[in-house]
Write a structure and sequence with these properties.
Blueprint: E1 2-5, E2 10-13, H1 39-45, E3 49-53, H2 60-73, E4 78-83, H3 94-112, H4 131-142, E5 147-152, H5 159-172, E6 183-188, H6 195-198, E7 217-220, H7 226-240, H8 246-256, H9 260-273, H10 284-297, H11 300-306, H12 312-323, H13 330-342, H14 356-366, H15 368-373, H16 390-411, H17 418-431, E8 436-442, E9 447-456, E10 465-476, H18 484-498, E11 502-509, H19 517-520, E12 522-527, E13 533-538
Parallel strand pairs: 3-6, 3-7, 4-5, 5-6, 10-11, 11-13
Antiparallel strand pairs: 1-2, 8-9, 9-10, 12-13
Helix pairs in contact: 3-5, 7-8, 8-10, 9-10, 12-13, 16-17
Length: 539
């Protein structure tokens, strides 16, 4: 976006919220990059090899590129940030992969380093197994400054190619700084502990737990804090005069939990795509609308994220999270760390989906096929006063479940949570484009809490009002007692938090000896311990 200053004589860029590629402080709103990884400079100055990892896109490239340029500009180091992505297509062809890495180094060095600090041309000859180490040794020996290398997208290398490069870096470690880079930073999606899987999958082939066991630290770049989200948005306010309401700022933090791409994408959707006038304040309604637009558009980042859902390692973690159960075996714990590195779940305990937007995306993707085939007309559930006929909605779902439940029960990929996904798909189909379905997964408590929010306006009421309907989903698992009493107790607490005096408890019977779905699906009425009226749907 450009603005004209001084009668059209001077053109200066107006900064934007960036959702593609590294940030440039002249073009994009951004936080001070080095502050996001404060430990890195000290490790580099001590001449260490270390790992930086974080989910995509979190700002790794922006931060490390800025740090490399700063170190070089200060004159103490020849620090170079480059990407290994060019080597990804060659797979196990480690000779070609090494040549691609060296080409990437030369290309970036020609742009970012002063002439006397650039690598030799051509690279020195060597055996096919030592191309990288020979090249880096020759460069370090002739460079007037200690060389610092940032290997970005290191996990683009696979199999034998990754194994070869990591082993050469480890072998050169004792020769630093005179005959090898003084510091090496490997940057990627995963922690180094997972490189052994990417480099072949069988730790016995590597001889050690990792082919890069000289690293002294592994730094995980975190998400923005709430104050950082506010600081980023304040830059837009300072430059344009358009302010964010305090409630909108809280909602943006709540929905994103500081995931950098989501923070920028929400703001960009509002500022650039929704046509909100720069003279108008940004409200919580704008934030909610932007969230829905992002989810429905399935932007590139969200699409790449959900593509992981069918990976066996991811499914073993995400399915029990969605179902509200956890496992504790060693394999599960390793998978948990992997999914945490992907950014699908929160970086810190308790185990949960990383943020409410990801919760929405995961469920909608898993239930998308069902949602599109549902034979319902959403407008038919809207009453003359604008409210949803929620009891009739539940009754029609029960009728649909009686007829199709057996097939849907077994035909979905996430089998353990299939009934819950079908109900959530049904609700989403009804409220799509008008209201919202807020989801909470009670990990370890065997439940999913849902709050349907539907806007309506009645004559003379003035401002828009919200109808809220709360549901708790439980499963009657084999060998377990009827979850009715526990569900009523949990739902009582959920309703109390929402300030509601009634709710719905849905119990899906997964016992193998249960009656057929068509026979067992029925409604009951109950009263919670705190006197709330509860509609129970057994299915």
């Amino acid at each position: 976006m450009l603005s004209v200053v001084g009668g059209g004589v001077t053109v200066r860029p107006v900064r934007e919220f960036n959702t593609a590629g590294p940030c440039d402080p002249l073009l994009h709103y951004m936080l001070p990059p080095e502050a996001r990884l404060p430990e890195a400079r000290g490790l580099i100055e001590r001449g260490e090899f270390f790992v930086v990892h974080a989910p995509q896109p979190t700002g790794k490239t922006t931060t490390l590129w800025a740090l490399a340029r700063a170190l070089t500009a200060e004159g103490r180091f020849a620090a170079l940030h480059f990407s290994c992505e060019a080597a990804e297509p060659v797979g196990d062809d480690f000779q070609t992969a090494q040549l691609a890495v060296l080409d990437s180094i030369r290309f970036r060095a020609a742009i970012d380093l002063p002439p006397d600090c650039r690598p030799p041309h051509p690279w020195p000859g060597s055996s096919d197994a030592q191309l990288v180490s020979a090249g880096l040794a020759a460069w370090s020996a002739r460079c007037p400054r200690p060389v610092v290398l940032f290997f970005d997208e290191i996990d683009a290398l696979r199999g034998e190619s990754l194994r070869s490069v990591l082993r050469q870096l480890r072998a050169g470690y004792p020769n630093r700084p005179a005959s090898f880079p003084a510091a090496v930073v490997l940057c990627g999606l995963r922690d180094v502990r997972d490189y052994k899987v990417a480099s072949g999958g069988d730790p016995s082939r590597l001889g050690t737990s990792s082919p890069f066991n000289v690293k002294v630290d592994s730094l995980r770049m975190g998400d923005f804090t709430e104050s950082e989200v506010r600081a980023l948005f304040a830059q837009h306010t300072a430059e344009t005069g358009q302010r964010f309401d305090d409630e909108a700022l809280r909602r943006a933090w709540e929905l994103t939990q500081g995931q950098p791409w989501l923070v920028n994408a929400l703001a960009r959707e509002i500022v650039e795509k929704m046509g909100v006038s720069s003279a108008a304040p940004i409200t919580v309604e704008h934030i909610d609308e932007a969230k829905e637009r992002l989810i429905l558009a399935r932007a590139t980042h969200l699409d790449s994220l959900v593509a992981r859902l069918l990976e066996p390692r991811v499914r073993r973690v995400m399915e029990p999270i969605l179902a509200g159960t956890l496992e504790g075996d060693e394999t599960y714990q390793d998978d948990l760390l992997y999914v945490r590195d992907l950014g699908l779940i929160a970086a810190k305990a308790p185990v949960r989906v990383a943020n409410p937007i990801y919760r929405e995306v995961v469920v909608r993707v898993l239930a998308y096929g069902v949602q599109e085939r549902l034979p319902v007309e959403p407008r038919s559930f809207i009453q003359p006063d604008g409210r949803l006929a929620f009891r009739r909605l539940l009754e029609e779902f029960a009728a649909f479940w009686r007829e199709h439940g057996e097939v849907l029960h077994t035909g979905m990929g996430y089998h353990e949570v299939a009934p819950q996904l079908v109900l959530m798909a049904y609700l989403q189909r009804i409220v799509n484009g008008g209201g919202y379905v807020d989801r909470e997964y009670g990990v370890g408590r065997g439940r999913i809490d849902l709050c349907v929010r539907w806007p309506y306006a009645t004559a003379g009421a003035g401002a828009r009002q919200w109808q809220r309907e709360a549901l708790e989903l439980k499963v009657w698992a084999p060998g377990k007692p009827d979850p009715l009493s526990r569900g009523l107790e949990q739902l009582d607490g959920y309703l109390e938090g929402l300030g509601l005096d009634r709710g719905v408890l849905v119990i899906f019977d997964r016992r193998p000896d249960a009656a057929p779905i068509a026979d067992r699906t029925r409604f009951e009425e109950a009263v919670s311990a705190k006197g709330r009226a509860i509609t129970v749907l057994r299915a």
